[in-house]
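Need a sequence for this fold. Nothing fancy.
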């Protein structure tokens, strides 16, 4: 079991199963969302994630044209999790919200076309110039 939370602790997740995937995303939306050069994301089965507290929702349209529903704390503004319309069976969680320095490293990297050239990842990380879901 794992827990994630925003900075102020008013929005929390209880996660009852291990991550199905850990990935780095270099897309411009993630860069802007995190305020840094990429995001590190863990993906879980939606039925294994319990949300505690109140979240505000922001809906953005991904490069695929599909919607991504971002959930953030209305008090401190931290984005804690999101739900992609492309796959409603999963929930994405910001790895930083888990607050665990021993969390597993990412196994893949997406939207490498936007990766800052000075960002390096382990050689074994799978790399994709765009996302994993084909553009529609």
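Here you go.
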């Amino acid at each position: 079991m794992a827990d994630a939370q925003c900075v102020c602790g008013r929005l929390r997740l209880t996660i009852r199963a291990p991550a199905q995937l850990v990935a780095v995303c270099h897309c411009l939306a993630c860069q802007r969302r995190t305020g840094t050069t990429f995001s590190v994301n863990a993906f879980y089965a939606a039925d294994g994630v319990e949300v505690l507290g109140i979240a505000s929702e922001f809906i953005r349209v991904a490069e695929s044209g599909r919607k991504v529903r971002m959930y953030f704390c209305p008090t401190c503004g931290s984005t804690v999790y999101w739900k992609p319309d492309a796959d409603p069976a999963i929930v994405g969680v910001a790895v930083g919200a888990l607050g665990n320095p021993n969390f597993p490293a990412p196994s893949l990297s997406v939207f490498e076309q936007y990766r800052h050239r000075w960002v390096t990842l382990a050689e074994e990380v799978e790399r994709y110039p765009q996302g994993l879901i084909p553009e529609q």
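For context: Residues 2-127 form a domain with the Metal Binding Protein, Guanine Nucleotide Exchange Factor; Chain A fold (CATH 2.170.150.70).
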